[in-house]
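$ ./design --mode recover --in tokens.txt
reading tokens...
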């Protein structure tokens, strides 16, 4: 069996599992529960703080067949398909390597077509890397979005995103985790996995993580390898 990194193994599947971003997940979960979700979001913050994971959870929640108090069930066919990467309702684009206007025009054409679920989710990672032409093409869609579509734009540098795009999104800022939060997280994983790590090793990986859950677990992977 191929080795699965700790970060992938412990990637959050529900809002409640997202660490250190309570202000974000509380608002998103409430919007799903009350049916007041937006059509476009901007998730900004340092790498490894849960932006893409949270966007995927939101996509599951918006299409879940057995929503539970704003949380996806992670058991229905829609949730299972999304987690397996087979869903027609979830599309992810790395804007750093697909930053041209043609990539965005293709995305806009896809967005206009209905999908099997209630909401088609588009996650654009590193959206600040889009060219000016691509940004303007995206802006036109954000100004008049199809009813069945939701966009999550993720970035580590929100100031480089066009102000006109920022103004048409709900902006959520993801924070680095504190050393105490990461220490508790690593201890929990060490017990759950289980892993043979001492307190000195835990302190080391937390320092190496610099507030990023992903980088902390990458360091933990190296320690226990």
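writing sequence...
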């Amino acid at each position: 069996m191929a080795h699965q990194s700790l970060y992938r193994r412990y990637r959050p599947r529900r809002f409640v599992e997202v660490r250190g971003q309570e202000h974000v997940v509380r608002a998103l979960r409430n919007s799903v529960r009350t049916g007041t979700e937006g059509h476009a979001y901007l998730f900004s913050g340092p790498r490894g703080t849960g932006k893409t994971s949270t966007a995927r959870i939101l996509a599951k929640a918006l299409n879940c067949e057995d929503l539970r108090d704003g949380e996806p069930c992670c058991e229905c066919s829609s949730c299972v398909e999304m987690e397996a990467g087979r869903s027609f309702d979830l599309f992810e684009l790395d804007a750093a390597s697909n930053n041209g206007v043609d990539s965005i025009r293709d995305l806009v054409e896809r967005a206009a077509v209905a999908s099997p679920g209630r909401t088609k989710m588009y996650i654009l990672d590193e959206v600040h890397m889009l060219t000016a032409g691509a940004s303007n093409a995206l802006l036109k869609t954000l100004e008049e979005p199809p009813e069945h579509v939701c966009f999550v734009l993720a970035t580590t540098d929100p100031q480089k995103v066009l102000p006109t795009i920022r103004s048409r999104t709900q902006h959520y800022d993801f924070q680095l985790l504190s050393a105490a939060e990461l220490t508790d997280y690593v201890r929990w994983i060490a017990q759950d996995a289980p892993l043979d790590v001492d307190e000195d090793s835990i302190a080391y990986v937390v320092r190496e993580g610099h507030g990023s859950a992903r980088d902390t677990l990458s360091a933990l992977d190296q320690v226990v390898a």
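exit 0
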